[in-house]
Amino acid sequence: MFFLKKLEHPIPLHPSYFGPSLADFIEQKLRDDVEGTCSGENGYIVKVLRIDSIGDGVVLPGEGLAQFNSVYQALVLRPFKGQVVDAIVSNVNKLGFFAQMGPLQIFTSAHLLPVAYRFTPDANPAEFSPVGEGAQGTSVVKGRKVRLRIIGVRLDATEIFAIGTMKEDFLGPFD
């Protein structure tokens, strides 16, 4: 789920930024550029932990900028199939619900909920609640914590999508 990863990032700078505090400026620019971004290859970059090296500046022809290649270590969020996660429900509708785990949004279809759960549109706000004989448990409503198993992950160039299920033992809403 969370991994330490060594990454590289080029930082082009205008010569007006050159001076005694250049290294500090490059460090801040790196953090601003990469923290909170997502790539399909690496996952969500949560935090830059350490900057290993900042290369010598190379003048970019025709642009008047200097490019500094930096190597850094970052904490990245990369979900994988089969992983059990705790998330917070952000939206409930008749098709299922969306839950957030940090920057990752997980959709759980109504078909991937236990059989006892039914959509209750009359409730305010809408919810999935256990119904029927012997039904026990807590309803799935916006703001409730849920434990899900990720059954599918799709990686795009700039986003990660996940599908979850509650149809197994020890999964579901909790307080």
UniProtKB/TrEMBL annotation:
Pfam families: S1, SHS2_Rpb7-N. Its main location: nucleus. Keywords: DNA-directed RNA polymerase, Nucleus, Transcription. It is found in: Nucleus. One of its GO terms (biological process) is positive regulation of nuclear-transcribed mRNA poly(A) tail shortening. Gene3D superfamilies: Nucleic acid-binding proteins, RNA polymerase Rpb7-like, N-terminal domain. Belongs to the eukaryotic RPB7/RPC8 RNA polymerase subunit family. This is Uncharacterized protein. It comes from Pseudomicrostroma glucosiphilum. The lineage of its organism: Eukaryota, Fungi, Dikarya, Basidiomycota, Ustilaginomycotina.
